[in-house]
Amino acid sequence: MNYQKQFTHMFLAHLKMTFREKQAWFWGIFFPVILMVLFMFIFAGGTNREFQADIAVVDPSPNEASQMLLEQIRQLPVFTIESGEPVNREQAEQWIKDKKVDAALILPESAEAGTVQLIVNKENEQSAVTQAIAGIVEQFIQQANLAAAGVQPAYSLQFSAVTSGSGELEYRDFLLTGMIALAIAQSGLFGMSDMVEMRRKGLLKRLRMTPARMGLYGLSDMINRLVFCVIQIVLLSAIGVFGFGANVHIHLGGLIVLFLAGALAFAAMGYFISSFSKTMEAYMGVANIASFLMMFLSGVFIPVETLPDWLQPVADVLPLTYFVDGLRTTMVYASGFSSSYWMELGVLAGWGVITYIIGSFLYKSKSIAATR
């Protein structure tokens, strides 16, 4: 039997086994969907809401300066004053302890005092909301100082952003591509468990006694996983776009090439892990370590640049880092075959080819064959 017929029969056999196995459908299709929806709600569910904070205001000794500051605070759209009027300090502190308000502002007792005190809950001192409130109040005080001194600011900051993509981009767009990359990576890493099970049952030993080639057997299983990855990317994209309003701007040619390279690379990694794992527990342990390492260090949820400096070199060698960047390049920015794209494609191809060759060698080696 020639190689083409061997590959066709092996691929059809893998496809039949996959369709018969309910666990494969759950972990290959439904689990990534559940994970995608969960993280979309957690990380992107509130991205359309403007920042808003509830505060209490204490004016211990009303005076001209405190009244001026109070009126200016009321004009800040990001702050909502609880009860609409100043309260005493005891009431403000109780609201903070009960987490009814995010912070309290103590206005100066006189024009000469010149101190505005910010009180927050100790438990939330390092939270993003508290830091945002502190930054807003600090800027407010600076503007009030300039106004009191009669100084007109000479410079101002105008903020804008540009992108190589089209349309407005939001965090959910980046999260969508990150989750698609993660789902495809996990499908490849965990998708070769049947190889370990076949070894445990002695089926691989019998297969080696036939004219079948182990390299073609592993390749046919990898292509079978590729079919699952196609379903994943279509399903997850539909949920992200129609369910959560994500925007995609696709460069079709670049996406297809990168998708094929990424799906095959991670399937090759799963094939490599299965080549030296003697039990299912060992296989799942190694696959889980690789999956969690890449999940949190490859820029799926947060940019790699925000990681500590000593961790960034680790992220630079992980294949999922380049797969995530490539998907964002071709699905969010609609960029084509740029220099960064070819680097990302090359790294994925390198990981795929090297792990596939090593995995095939281990399956063929006598030391591994003796354990089957």
Describe this structure in words.
- The protein is mainly α and 372 residues long.
- The protein has 2 domains: 11-45 and 170-369, no CATH class; 53-149, abc type-2 transporter like fold, CATH 3.40.1710.10.
- The chain is built from 15 helices and 4 strands.
- It has a 4-stranded mixed β-sheet, with helices on both faces.
- Helix 3 (64-74) links the parallel strand 1 (53-58) and strand 2 (79-81).
- Helix 1 (3-20) packs across helix 9 (214-244) and helix 6 packs across helix 13 (319-331).
- The radius of gyration is 29 Å and the shape is elongated.
Q: SSE order, as H and E?
A: HHEHEHEEHHHHHHHHHHH
- The value of Rg in angstroms is 29 Å
Strand segment tally = 4
What is the number of helical segments per DSSP (H or I, 4+ residues)?
15
What is the mean predicted local confidence, pLDDT? 79
**Which segments are poorly predicted (pLDDT under 50) over 5 or more consecutive residues?**
366-372
Write down the overall geometry: elongated
Percent range for helical residues?
Answer: 55-70%
Order of neighbouring strands in the sheet with most strands = 2-1-3-4
Q: Which oligomeric state applies?
A: single chain
Provide the structure class: mainly alpha
Strand content: under 5%
> How far is the N terminus from the C terminus?
25 Å
Largest sheet: 4 strands, mixed
Q: How many domains would you count in the coordinates?
A: 2
